[in-house]
Model the fold of this input.
Amino acid sequence: MDVVNLLQRQYIDYITSLYREGYLDDQFTQLQKLADESSPDFVDDIVTLFFQDSDKLIENLARALEQHVVDFNQVSNHAHQLKGSSSSVGANKVKNICAMFRGYCEEKNRDVCVACLQSLQQEISVLKKKFEYLFKLEQDILNNGGIIPTMD
Done:
């Protein structure tokens, strides 16, 4: 088996595992379909913007939860924004944590919200590493003269 075929097999196995383990959903597949020859880095760019946005929203969430009197509506709004961003890139686990976060805001439970924020930070960190590896595999395939397999 040549290098390109091996890399493509690794790619398919890896991305399949991301869907199976619930890290990604079909929205990521839709995002990939929007990329074309004129914008080959489209998905990478969108995912990079997602992580930049999520960093800011996590900071906003942490700052809001540190206040003496927590504005749970504000916290819920930040979690809602992050849920929307994560949904747009197919980040399924992050989206689901954000939905739970909003529920905890309705309960106005600071401790549970802080724990949820920590869980969210961890999940985003894990997802970022998984995307980095996925994009490295894509680059390795291209650098070896191959094409990125599609998930249909």
User: Anything to note?
Assistant: The chain has a mean pLDDT of 94. Residues 110-143 form the longest helix (34 residues). The helical segments are 3-20, 26-34, 42-66, 72-89, 92-107, 110-143. The chain is about 80% helix and 0% strand.
